[in-house]
Specification:
Helix content is 14%, strand content 38%. It is mainly beta and 71 residues long. It has one domain: SH3 type barrels (Roll), CATH 2.30.30.100.
Length: 71
């Protein structure tokens, strides 16, 4: 699970993040961290929609190559 400090750093920098939900790259969510709670993170996508995602997913900067994910 991603820490509050990491989420705060992403929010303050305004850096786009990639949320890896499974092994299929098309299912990744990219956007900016807006807010979070103990269990969820709110991400603003480029089309301005807000998506609530579980904090147990893998978060990484969007500019980095995707981490390979094995199921």
């Amino acid at each position: 699970m991603i820490s509050d400090e990491e989420l705060d750093a992403f929010r303050l920098s305004g850096e786009k993040v990639r949320v890896i939900r499974d092994a299929i790259p098309e299912n990744d969510v990219r956007g900016i961290v807006v807010a979070w709670s103990d269990t969820q993170v709110m991400i603003r996508r480029p089309n301005r929609n807000i998506v609530k995602l579980d904090r147990n997913y893998t978060f990484q900067p969007a500019k980095e190559p995707r981490i390979s994910f094995e199921v």
